[in-house]
Amino acid sequence: MNVPAAWYLILAAVLFGVGAFGLLTRRSALIMFMCIELMLNAVNLTFVTFSRTLSDIGGQASVFFIMVVAAAEVTVGLGIVVAIFRRRSSTSVDDLSELKG
Amino acid sequence: MIASTYALASILVFVTAALLILGGAVGVITMKNPVHSALSLIMTLFGVAVAFVAQSADFLAAVEIIVYAGAIVVLFLFVIMFLGVDRKENVHVEPLVGQRAFAGVGVIITIAGLIALMAKSHWVTGTMSVSTNGVKLAVGQGNVKQLGTAVFTTYLFAFEATAALLVIAVVGAVLLARRERTLQSEEVEV
Asked: Residue B151 and residue A24: Cβ atoms within 8 Å?
């Protein structure tokens, strides 16, 4: 018998917490993006666990769409980081106090 | 006692996945060098893929490796190298006083709240899917078939919408990363 769903849900909650902590404390925009990926993966893990427990493929379909959105988000986000770096020569979010280009 | 209730193999798989996931996640937020953080992220993604396989999401495990570890992390590494920001960030300085303490307290409250909420509501609530009649999800090729059927029937509209989303994302990324070629002198300066 497989391990209970609770174990995977706790693991996902802790992973989400670690990602959130990194997002709140790190100042490099690139690392913050990686932390967002960690949080998205925590949610993916939760979806797959619910999908397994309820025998519902809908959870896995949701993960599929989350992955697509994550890929799009990273593409645009890194484009913005590159554009900002051209202007400011830094990826630290502390230097970004205004929207003016 | 636990080992007798659940198969030893599934416990080993869970422990392996948990170590990979948490080790990688802690690495991402503690490494000073962004390249090392990206490599730690790959470790986490492999752990998540292991957890997916253990929970009969075979197709998603493959996609996790191919799309996340293969494309997204490579994109991260490419941008890190391209910008030349692979120098070490000083993580010991804390410009905002008490930022880490507040973040830590907030995160602990969040995790504890989530776990308490789930434990109180018997972890997983809801009804079994009617389409599978309570039979366990298929693994291997059967999983690909099930997921494909769901995506191309029930979620067809969302699937088509992702096509538009990806096109918009690509166009947006090209537009953002494009250099403005207005002046010849600017080109030389860059």
From this structure: no
